[in-house]
Amino acid sequence: MNGMSIIFAPLLPWPVIAGAAVVAVVLLALALWRGLKGWALRALAALVLLAAIAQPSLQREQTAPLSNIVLLIDDRSSSQKLSDRVAQTDTALTRLQAQLDAMPNVETRRITVPDGADNAGTELGSTLAEALAAEPRARVAGALMVTDGQAHDAQLAPDLPAPLQVLLTGKRSDWDRRILIETAPSFGIIGEETDIRLKVEDMGNVPESAGGTADLTISIDGKDPKSYTVRTDRDLELPLTLTHGGQNVVQFTLSPTDGELTDRNNVATVQINGVRDRLRVLLVSGQPHAGERTWRNLLKSDAGVDLVHFTILRPPEKQDGVPVTELSLIAFPTQELFVDKIDEFDLIIFDRYGARGILPSAYFDNIKDYVERGGAILVAAGPEFATVESLYQTSLGDIMPARPTGRVMSESFLPRPTDLGLRHPVTAGLEGAPAPEGEDTEAEKVGPHWGHWLRQIELTNPTGEVVMSGAEGKPLLVLSREGEGRVALLASDQAWLWDRGYDGGGPQLELLRRIAHWEMKEPELEEEALYAEIDPGALSMRIIRRTMEDSAPPVTVTLPDGSTEQVPLTETAPGRFTARWTAPEAGLYRLKDGDLERVVAMGPASPREFEQTIASGGPLSAVVEASNGGVTRLEDGVPAIREVRAGRPTSGRGWIGITPRGATATTDIRVQPLLPAWAWLILAALLTVGAWLVEGRNRRGGGGDRGGPTAA
């Protein structure tokens, strides 16, 4: 195909040429005003000069027609695998491809759309935008999309230069039922009701046999499932009570109903972090000392702790003659604290407390019973613990994890974690910790290190776990479980030296915080624990087994389909064994090692791909309408493809249309000047001379008429 056009390559800028043309017009007007007969030739001469400056050329183009491109988009997302949609899609694509191949001057670009990453759903909009960006817009004659229409990024679809034809899979009779979690808290108070709002929603052409009701099963951590019959399409408020701290996996399951598209959306999970309400701590201080404020600062700095603190400033045996009416001290409410409301406390701390007769022996019996029922006490021992006033001499001695010998070692010593303490969560991983006794390293001399303490109470016959040792390798921190409760014994009142930075200081607040939280049974400080850390946006997790043993057996993982897999663990730190494991699919997984069990929800709580399963052109209606396209159901048969002109209807009964674009490509260009430069100059000169000759003849002839005087 050939084409011809005139192009210009001006010697001067166009504004300069325009100015010259204006000057020529002014001169031409002056010639007309003076009545010069050669004005037309002068005008032609000026025009020739201006044309010579503009340098007109004749351009000949040779072009070839380009093929029309049709985008054929194949939706292979998970919702497209429901019912017989795979067969519908395969049949439609085969027939559409055959029709396009038979059409002259048409090329097909086939694009497959999988599930989006990170539970993004079906990304039809962005896929269409990327496919269009990869092709010349002038050649795109249309886009054919075989899909269920559930696009989760339809707002990203581009403005198409040709019609978009959506070919819907599925059937008009399809229906489905799903669980929709509307609101769920991220944490809940242990022992208190937590509300979750959800809805059982019916979608599509729901048969009357469904009855408008559904059987819903609820379980926490896969235990004790409870079933209820609920109404569909109504908001439901479900109260739940969490029984333990840490992650609680709540699973909702709908019983399958005959005829629904899928049961993949019949299960939803919610992970709620169980937390304690404000922890109540009773701190009883004996003789005032420098470390008393350390305990108070530790407990007051935690916004989740309610602290009740009493200091015994005036023991009963003190006789100084001061009238009782003039004392401004608050009476110690022993009956209220140690009898009436003792079970309201999560932890009781005795800081350098000596049994001086303030508390009757019956109260110590009550404290012992409180521990065995699930309470906790922490004894920070001072010199009085080695005397007859020691708490060990009361009924609390029966639950003490070690016995004092009566010796107070007033010497400088370095607290050290024991071999057991390197594994115990209370002392494992503390910054700057020295090696156990007899295992000093050079790193302790140059890196962060713990400072020395100056006093320790000698303990013997430990019955609990010795996690720290002190002077002469004697037990310094002993932890034990008594009944359902816990007891911690710290055989020194010198921890405050770390807080003051003495000899380099140490992790005083972190150590005391761990002791207190271990006693209050915080899940992250349990000696024997099994849990998992899920990688965000992936079906993989890191299984972590914490134990006081030297080895850990493989963890048994139960998959959603009931099959099991053994996952071996590798020791990555003392007492810490881990393994990374990838799940084959989203769902609820159960980890088990002996008596330890943990339920983990992998993948999204409600997969986005199955939120809407009924085929519909609604999500893509805006881009279809803007492109003058249409929506056709494959249930009625695969439509025929026609070529239609732009602006005409592109869909009808049994057919769809594409719009040929008529795009061409230039294969050859030839440029030839209209006249050479010398020809322009000769032509302009001839026209100028002609104008001069015409005007000269007119002047001579006119002069004879108006010439000299006539004869008489």
Automatic annotation (TrEMBL):
Q: Which domain of life is it from?
A: Bacteria
Stored InterPro entries: Class_I_gatase-like
Q: Which UniProt keywords apply?
A: Membrane, Transmembrane, Transmembrane helix
Query: What residue ranges are annotated as transmembrane?
Result: 12-32, 39-58, 677-694
Query: Does the keyword section mention Signal?
Result: no
What name appears for this protein in its UniProt entry?
Glutamine amidotransferase domain-containing protein
Species source reads Thioclava electrotropha
